[in-house]
Amino acid sequence: MSFLARLAKSAKGAIKRAIVQHHQRSGAVLFSDTTLRDGEQMPGATLEPADKLEIALALEKAGVHSLDAGFPASSEQDAEAIRMMIGKVKRPVLTALCRTVKSDVDAADRALAGQPAHKRGVSLFVGTSPLHRQFKLQKTETEILRIIEDNVGYAASKFEIVAFSPEDASRTELPYLCEAYRTAIAAGATTIGFPDTVGVLTPEKARDFLRRIQDGVPNIDRVLVAVHFHNDLGLAVANTLACIAEGAHVVQCTVNGIGERAGNASLEEVAMALDLNFDQYGRKAKIDTTQLVPLCHLVQRLTGIKPAPNKPVCGQTIFATEAGIHQDGLLKNPDTYLPFRPERVGAEKIELVLGRHSGRRAVSNRLAELGLPSDDTHVGVLLERIKQLPKGVILDDTLVRELATGG
Fold this sequence. Notes:
eight-stranded parallel barrel; 10 strands; single chain; 16 helices
């Protein structure tokens, strides 16, 4: 290598380190969305390239730092979707998933051609747990370390942003896991990921893992640390928050928590937990929370995957109540029975659902909204008629008018 080439390589390395150090010093939590790749692995959630572009633009508007935009080596559709984003999705970093195979890196390089160097990257993975080594890869520990070194190094020759994640990290022996990280960082990785691939961890174990990785990887100060949790025990968000408290820089999430099996950590839930608990975590995220519900609805529409009605942040019943005591409190002050108001997450309004459990104040409020008499006598009559309705009847405005007017 010539002197000029060595000088250029040294300068490039200095720029990478400066960027990493900037993010480390900022203390901000960077959101890396994987809806378009990991989320799409949920059965039935297949997205067309145009759908992915629409979601990517909405994610950009919401303020995510990077997008796991697809797996170019797996399908031409993924490569096409990434190409469609070039020049249109401008603020987030676009990354492509790769196995630790040079042809995958080449496929990502082609798909991301034209994207500015500081806004494109690759995310490499290889199984490291005993199960993956023996049954999936049939490789020794030494062979896998050599694969990591060769392919992360190759990726670093083509990309300024290179992430490495040991698949099934949470079931990998800690000394070997740390060795894999040390190898990847030495080969040129700028981010290392900790994935709980089968979602078995608890918050306490997740936090302990991160502490021990930080202690066991001396060169960890040269990279950003990302975490990626699956929701098989319903703990993906809790595990993510535990690692944020321990210093993780990047959180990988999906909108609506979609993903294979039980899904992934939910972007909107992590974002709101941080927003509401700054006193605990002391870390900001550049997420515009007013975009969360519209984003969730968009992903629901394009994937066809409907969240549970009581899904946190974006569920259908999140701002709805039928309980009379709660309705009375909400009418007096919405904060009495809400952790946050609808407008904070871009939702429309509080819904006071009329039903058997409703109180007089909610009924009076609905009558007044419909321009009908709302005195005590009319309220009492309507309330009695509501309580006599059969189970399952939807009490919309038309039926309220009929019951109130005796129709």
